[in-house]
Design a protein that fits this description.
The complex is a heterodimer.
Chain A lengths: L2 H22 L3 H26 L3 H28 L16
Helix pairs in contact in A: 1-2, 2-3
Chain B lengths: L4 H20 L3 H21 L3 H25 L11 H25 L13 H8 L4 H28 L1
Classes of the chains: A mainly alpha, B mainly alpha.
Amino acid sequence: MTSEVLVLATSAVLLAIGATGALIRRNPIAMLMSVELMLNAANLLLVLGARVRGNVDGQAAALIVLVLAAAEAVIGLGVALALFRDRDRVDVDEPAEVHG
Amino acid sequence: MNELFLPLAVGCAVALVSALLVVLARRPVHAVVALLAHSLALAALYLILGADMVAMGQVLIYSGAIVVLFLFVIALLPQGGSEADLGFGRVLGGLVVGCALLAGLAAWLALAGPLPPAAPNAGGNVVEVGRSLFGRLIVPFELTAPLLLVAIVGAVAIWRRQERVS
């Protein structure tokens, strides 16, 4: 197994772990953290691609994804805080105003 | 780059174990600490892969800003954000989807064939990354400015609406 394949496999497994976590958790904070895991997996793949291709565009794209992750975390945490600040339980299935 | 195999393997192992802890930890504070370890492990991986600038951004933005933001929100949530019991069906469904995703990715990677050999001189110094950001990737780079502005306005708007209700 070469180093590239190792990193590639790690990225794929990280994406699967993040997707599973986002699906099974009820806590919006834990779900957001799982989404961050998935974004990190994509970033790892971008950096690996930049390395393999000898092209730094992948690294620049990874930086842009970092900014995107920060913005996503701010909005997600803001919504979680606004929804759950006055409730005694933290459960994403509970608030009626997000059922549509 | 096979002389880098051992450090890469250690970094990947730490990243995978801490990612599992993020998903499995029952208390959100433990999950945040695992997320911190995860982001630091990924920064080390980026350094080994020659992406100095991305590693620096990862430490500053992820370990510095995002993890602290998560900690603040957990401190503000009721009961520290501890959650109700996960139903059996929910866990089963999540595991099925995760395993299916993993199997699909593995099949796709197996069908894609071997990777091309690593390009020589795959440097990633700050000058080259900056040239790429301000050259070919100038449009997405400039679009991050309105993205951040929208995020700020959105966060404030969510909070204002909540204040009016309560």
